[in-house]
Design a protein that fits this description.
Layout (H helix, E strand, L loop, with lengths): L1 E5 L6 E14 L2 H7 L4 E15 L3 E6 L5 E6 L6 E6 L7 E4 L13 E3 L24
């Protein structure tokens, strides 16, 4: 599936080809910390088909629990997380952050990973009150 997207400030824009069957919710503690929330939703890039259209990305390399080095790419202006990918030889795993994709409504998660780290409350949010916008108290 062809997609396009950007960071929050629009400094970074891109286009990519993704596999909508590889949309995951990741509950690992690295994703929790890096996203600033309980989990992250990502989708796999097909054949590394990601093309930066505008801007430049900054990257931070970290060692995953598996021992592989992962590059976390983000906008240097607003800090929006764009993707992560394995560095060097080995797994070509490239995970585009679904929240940056304009077509994100079509990218429905197919599985959850690293559930041993999941916040218990994140399993079911249906009982929480819902508002169409920010409620004022």
């Amino acid at each position: 599936m062809k997609v396009d997207g950007s960071c929050l400030c629009k400094h970074v824009t891109y286009e990519a080809t993704v596999d909508p069957q590889k949309v995951i919710v990741c509950h690992c503690t690295d994703c929790q910390t890096h996203s600033g929330t309980a989990y992250r939703v990502s989708t796999g890039i097909v054949n590394e088909e990601f093309r930066l259209l505008t801007g430049r990305l900054k990257s931070y390399e970290k060692i995953a629990e598996s021992g592989t080095i992962r590059a976390l790419a983000f906008c240097p202006e607003c800090g929006t997380n764009i993707y992560s990918k394995t560095v060097g030889e080995g797994s070509p795993f490239f995970a585009l952050r679904v929240g940056t994709v304009k077509q994100r409504a079509q990218l429905i998660p197919k599985q959850q990973v690293w559930c041993r780290s999941a916040e218990e409350w994140s399993a079911d949010l249906t009982a929480l009150p819902r508002h169409e916008n920010q409620p004022f108290s």
